[in-house]
Backbone:
């Protein structure tokens, strides 16, 4: 199977779209798109390298899903609606069974969000998955820079689950059999993060700032604090952690993971207190938690103490 047959068989089927807003020339030298009137285009690219972002031998469908969901999380954080994505895939070999599983993992999100794959690049080398996502916005984007003293700080979902799963994966050497129900839950959270697209769109009309949590809560809070020139004061007792994480790790370790572990892909945002009730009513299916307040000043505080030394967000090249 050559490169073109591979693309034709596994990736072209993911480019079907009834979204007549765009599409011309998928499969040509370039994909050509016509944007709807009044729309802004949001773009973000994420790369996952074997041995750095995932373990060797990770199941291909899980890997595909996590890579795409993680990339889509950046669209959610801006309040954009997913439009289409492109994929640059580097493969050590052509393994048809692996490719079929990989494409099946992508297809779940392609179908769920009407989010077609409109082009890419396929090369030979060490396994590397690079996904560029594109979204549309009809309003001003949710930025990291609008937080105001007096705003509530809030997060979606629960934190620390994906970080705890990572140590499980290492311990069990990728096997998911023989895991307890709680361990299975953590593994699901790691492999299948939910891009908070609907929440991002709900936040467009009420949030003052927003970021997605890919590198750990404290690290992301520091980004908002810096961009907004304010201090973020967090209350460790209010961090939302799952009952599964509490059960497996205990209160202290769960809190540590919630503060510093990455890969949860929940949203961290700020908003004026009077807007809270309307927001919560607008996304009844989601758990939203208030975890602190924005204050004048700079940096991140945890229970009144400067959190600088706790910052353990994973930073490349350090
Ligand atoms: P070119 O040499 O013009 O860059 P390529 O040979 O790289 O073209 O790709 C041929 C076509 O297949 C292009 O339309 C490209 O967008 C598409 N394509 C290549 N790899 C992928 C992929 N992994 N997923 C989806 N489309 C792909
Ligand atoms: Mg090319």
Residues:
């Amino acid at each position: 199977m050559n490169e073109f047959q591979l693309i034709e068989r596994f990736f072209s089927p993911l480019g079907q779209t009834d979204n007549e807003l765009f599409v011309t020339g998928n499969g040509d030298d370039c994909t050509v798109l016509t944007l709807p009137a009044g729309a802004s285009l949001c773009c973000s690219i994420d790369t996952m390298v074997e041995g750095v972002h995932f373990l060797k031998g990770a199941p291909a469908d899980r890997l595909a899903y996590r890579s795409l969901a993680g990339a889509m999380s950046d669209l959610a954080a801006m309040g954009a609606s997913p439009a289409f994505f492109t994929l640059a895939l580097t493969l050590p070999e052509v393994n048809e069974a692996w490719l079929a599983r990989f494409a099946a993992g992508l297809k779940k999100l392609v179908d769920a969000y009407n989010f077609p794959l409109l082009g890419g690049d396929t090369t030979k080398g060490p396994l590397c998955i690079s996904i560029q996502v594109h979204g549309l916005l009809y309003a001003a984007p949710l930025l990291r820079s609008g937080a105001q003293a007096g705003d509530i700080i809030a997060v979606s979902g629960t934190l620390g689950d994906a970080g705890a799963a990572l140590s499980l994966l290492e311990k069990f050497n990728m096997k998911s059999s023989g895991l307890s129900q709680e361990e299975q839950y953590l593994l699901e959270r790691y492999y299948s993060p939910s891009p908070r697209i609907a929440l991002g769109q709900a936040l467009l009309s009420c949030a003052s700032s927003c970021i997605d949590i890919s590198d750990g809560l404290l690290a992301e809070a520091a980004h908002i604090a810096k961009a907004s020139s304010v201090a973020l004061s967090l209350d460790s007792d209010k961090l939302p952690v799952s009952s599964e994480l509490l059960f497996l790790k205990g209160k202290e370790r769960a809190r540590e993971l919630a503060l510093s572990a990455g890969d949860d892909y929940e949203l961290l945002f700020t908003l004026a207190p009077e807007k809270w009730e309307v927001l919560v009513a607008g996304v009844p299916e989601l758990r939203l938690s208030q975890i602190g307040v924005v204050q004048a000043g700079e940096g991140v505080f945890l229970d009144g103490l400067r959190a600088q030394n706790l910052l353990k967000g994973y930073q490349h090249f350090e």
